[in-house]
Fold these 2 entries.
Entry 1:
Amino acid sequence: MSVPDGAYRTVERCRICGSARLDPVVSLGATPLANAFLAAERAREPEPRFPLDALRCARCYLVQLGVVVRPELMFSDYAYSSSASAPAVRHFDELASEVVERFDLAGRRVVEVGSNDGVLLASLAARGARVLGVDPAARQAAIANARGLETIVGYFDRATASRVVAEKGRARLVVANNVLAHIDDLHEVLAALDALLEDDGVFVAEVPYVADLLDRVEYDTIYHEHLSYFALTPLRTLFSRAGMELFDVRRLLVHGGSIRIYVGRSGRRPVSDAVPRTLEEERASGLLDASAYDRFAARVWASRRALLDLLRRSRREGHTIAALGATAKGNTLLNYCGIGPDLVSFIADSTPLKQGRVTPGMHIPVRSEEAIAAERPDLTLLLAWNYADEIIGRFADYVSGGGRFIHPVPIARILP
Ligand code: JHZ
């Protein structure tokens, strides 16, 4: 289906440094939006598809998508709920515990950007912070508001920041998890941060780390919501242009490998050794060299081949196959590999909003997690492979009854 006029724009210049030297990294075809799950009766209607190409800035090294889809098309009817993943809830609780203690947040104003249904807000509030959320996904924001976790429905820009400052005062901490990758105009967000943060306020953010994306061939984490794929090197360029400074960084295992960054106004806080060390690792490991991306593109193709071979061979041998986790990344993987209901008969997922719908593009039905116990597929493709250990542990009965999981990246393998 052709897409409506103005539904997306083509990226001509790097969103951090403005360079027009954007080199191709990998092309994953044209796919529907990764969270655009459809009502089953609408599966016959044509779906808009958008080019899914990653590019790399030759000047500041930011990896970025070749198109920007209008955010309202992705976030106003948004299927992802943070609270549906128990490990994510625990992760946010640990984050709340760390930042409340480290930045002395009891009784202080904390604003979360991209607060979804309020999982992190709840943990921060339970530790005494005065919380406020901002999120464009109206349904998720309504859930947070109903829990007493005040959430503004909207995007984080200077207008929102001024409104918050006028109504609530400035913030000691602004936190944004898995949000920076979704933002086109990063300079606007930094200006909003500048307006909102107290003089020695702190910005903490988590982003998937491009070094892990490359190492583990996590090509499926490339989808239209994710406009940028960050290393620390381009992030330092971004913040320094706005008079801000990265003062700490931690590598995390979540979402296949992420970094948590800590940012303040320049010169306000001592800079941890982890910052120069990580920047040096990025240089020394070749992460900033074009050849790393050529290798990645070849590995993506090999990964697709191996997964298709495994699924097709298993079906030929008469095995039944389902999947677990109707993830956004799963929809990149299914569409790019061309995996439909003939190979994977259904996907089990704990999110009520996704159940009863079909996946964008490949139209695989989404059911509740109980469907795995009811149908006992021989193999279950882990589309939420970032939670592999947790899921395999929880499905011990399925495994002891002979069920096996397929971990799709970097190269498809059977677990346990
Ligand atoms: P999950 C999300 O992407 C959303 P997704 C977002 N685009 C983003 O930036 C990235 O994360 C980083 C289900 N599940 O978190 C719940 C089970 O059914 O891997 C979710 O639908 N049973 C903002 O969508 C999905 O899997 C379980 O036991 O790729 C998990 O989605 C668990 C643990 C999860 O990311």
Entry 2:
Amino acid sequence: MIDLRSDTVTLPTKEMLEAILDAKLGDDVSREDETVLELEEKAAKKMGKEAALLVTSGTQGNLVSVMTHTNKGDEVFMESESHVYYYEVGGMSAIAGVIPHLIPGNRGQIPPEKLEEAIRPPDIHYPNPRLVIIENTHNRAGGAVIPPENMKAISDISHDKGLSVHVDGARIFNAAIALNMDVSKLVEPVDTIMFCLSKGLSAPIGSLVVGNEEFIEKARKNRKMIGGGMRQAGVIAAPGLVALEKMVDRLKEDHDNAKKLEKHLREIPSLNVWPVETNIVLIDISNTGYDSTQFLLELEKRGIKAVPFARHLVRFTTHRHITEKDVDEAAAIIKEFLK
Ligand code: TLP
């Protein structure tokens, strides 16, 4: 099987598993797990912020961040197809009690003038506007990179109006690599970031929330409230440290393979291939006569796994277990199937 469903399928490396055996452990709820403390410190430093908090998943990291930035009934702005709205089980409303305000974007970018328009002046009738969420890279926009200019413009407007800015940076390192830019520079204008260790970086579990000391202290309590206080969490942090130190630079290979897949698929006339910027390739299959479910069933019969993104939209994601040869082979199979 050529498994192009997600970079979440990546397995831990041998070095990560070995790191677990040697990790210094303790009770992290009491801040006694040295490995967790080390990971949190390194994560904060890497992002150029004061502090960090290890959480179980990207979904938990975004939820804890929203809970920490907001009060119940607050209004939170985000791009219409953002993961936090689309795929996080409505947690921000069900648990944090906020109301999402969706702004249609251009390849995942919130147009600054649209945000300016959307944030209304105080009025007895309106919810309190409190937070803006940027997603970088933007998953449903096809792994699109949100450039530093947009991050800055959105942050400036938000801060001017008294709102905070959170980045769903599940794949922030993919963005930094694609931009050939230091990640701390990219996130400089924003207040908080969630990033994942368990996607392209190949760690088995874990994400981090990064921000200033005061925010992280409050977030730690919110994480506890939703059951995310962990004990010997060094078993998660140890492979996480390897992910952070050793797995970032290799993301470029995933991007190169995705670009190669894009090039091959563009040769198939019935496919409409979205521009590829990182490790995600979206194809519009409207002209093939199949819908995504049928198309993916046919692909699976032929040894390829991918995921549906809409009725006629399919996503392929490259990652550490996908080689250049796999990409050539997958494209040849799809070409043959659609002939
Ligand atoms: N995304 C997963 C699925 O949920 C769709 C994937 O395969 O891409 N933010 C972004 C931008 C994400 O893409 C994801 C995961 C998350 C947050 C949530 O992370 P987890 O899965 O760790 O809760």
